[in-house]
Amino acid sequence: MNPNEQVEVDIRDEKLLFTNKQPKKVSLAGAVFFALLLAVGVFIGAYVTVTSQVNAKLREMDQVYAKYAKMETLLNYIDENYIREYDNALLWEAVYAAMFESIGDPYSLYMTAEEYAAYVEDHSGNYVGIGISVIYDPETEGAFVHRVVTDSPAQKAGILPGDIVTAIEQTVLTEENYSEALNLVAGEEGTSVKLTILRDGETLQIEAVRGKMKTENVFYQKLEGDVAYIEILSFSEAITYDQFSAALEQAKTDGCKAYIFDVRDNPGGSLDVICKCLDLLLPEGDIIHIVSADGKSESQKSDGEHFLDAPMAVLCNGNTASAAELFTADLRDYQLATIVGEKTFGKGTMQSVVPMKDGSAIKITHRYYNPASNVSYDGIGIQPTEGYEVILTEEERLKLYRLPLSEDKQLQKALESLLGN
């Protein structure tokens, strides 16, 4: 190469001009002029960038304004043309609710101030009632009493497990009004409610005085073969952890050597409660991976201090959902438990409740809820362990809570997995 030859590269490729010549001396005036040109170029570039961003923001604001303008037009049209009276506050509540219905997520919703107050009360672990757990009984169109809370108004009034509530006050229960009729049990503390009870073919009239009680979410009993049977109804209330911890301690005191955890029909619950409960069972390691919309993940871990080193089985069905699925999946992922029953619901998302200044609130889906394996079960569900799927017919499912444990096919299969019978 000629020592004075230049090698030029297109600056569109962000390259430079190379030369083998010695650089010439540049005058001070030339350097200042070049610097001014560079500064002007940078300023113009920055101005163009900022202007572009501002214009984009203005276009976005125009779109928002157009939407609000349309809303105002519709409201004015109703005000000026509708011929009947209407409740303006009710209209706006319907608008707020429709916003969340429109996004197509069954777990995101708007709550009025009254609905949010009831939601808080339901999740506080305390409630006013009479203390019975009921299930619809198709044979009598009544409410089959599955459980009676210890020291509850129902127990004091003489209501027993196995009773069937056929009427509340003057309302006879039917399949059509069942849920609405059950709401009649609720009321103010100290007031009474009259129930018509069917027991062994005899009709009884029982009056119970409503009282404030703590929710019972965990039930324990020792089965043959030193097996602890622990049923968890939900992970919603903070007291669930205390009840679950107490059940585990009682099982250890009773000399139980294996455990069955029943989360059938358990709809899930709170992140804090499920993580604390799983920390009582798992070795050191991941409990949950929380994945945000942008794909970022954060984990919560077990410290392994309370690791339950014993054979386990988990009972689940199609109504086992959310946090109850996390419970099932983690015991599976750590190879600690046999999963028995039916495929779970498949809800692996997390919701947050955000209160508004007027007492209302919104609940919105904002995270994925992944187990230790970090494999999502959302929309998929969790399959029973191979060879341990036990599917109940609709008739068997409806009668399940009326059966003694010895006739519960899924429970017996779980015992088989632990005892090898």
Low-pLDDT stretches: 1-26
CATH third-level topology of the largest domain: 2-enoyl-CoA Hydratase, Chain A, domain 1
Q: What would the principal axes of the Cα set say about the shape?
A: globular
Helix content: 25-40%
The oligomeric state of the chains shown is single chain
Total helical segments = 10
Number of domains: 3
What is the name of the CATH architecture of the largest domain? Alpha-Beta Complex
**What is the percentage of strand-forming residues?**
25-35%
List the helices and strands in order: EEHHEHEEEHEEHEEEEEHEHEEEHEEEHH
CATH superfamily of the largest domain: 2-enoyl-CoA Hydratase, Chain A, domain 1
Number of strands: 20
Any idea of the CATH class of the largest domain? Alpha Beta
Secondary structure category: alpha+beta
Describe, in short, the structure shown.
With 421 residues, this protein is of the alpha+beta class. 33% of the residues lie in helices and 26% in strands.
Written description of the protein model:
- This protein is an alpha+beta fold.
- It folds into 3 domains: 28-86; 126-214, PDZ domain (Pdz3 Domain); 218-419, Alpha-Beta Complex (2-enoyl-CoA Hydratase, Chain A, domain 1).
- 33% of the residues lie in helices and 26% in strands.
- The chain has 10 helices and 20 strands.
- The chain has helices at residues 28-81, 88-102, 113-122, 153-157, 178-182, 239-253, 271-279, 323-333, 394-399, 409-419, and strands at residues 6-7, 18-19, 109-111, 126-129, 132-137, 142-148, 164-168, 171-172, 192-199, 202-209, 211-214, 218-223, 227-232, 258-262, 285-291, 297-302, 312-316, 337-341, 349-355, 361-370.
- The strands form 5 sheets. Strands 5, 6, 7, 8, 9 and 10 form a 6-stranded antiparallel beta sheet that branches. Strands 3, 15, 16, 19 and 20 form a 5-stranded antiparallel beta sheet that branches. The chain has a 5-stranded mixed beta sheet with strand order 12-13-14-17-18, with helices on both faces.
- α6 runs parallel beside α7 (271-279).
- The longest helix is centred in the N-terminal third of the chain and has 54 residues, at 28-81.
- The radius of gyration is 32 Å and the shape is globular.
- Mean pLDDT is 86; it is low at 1-26.
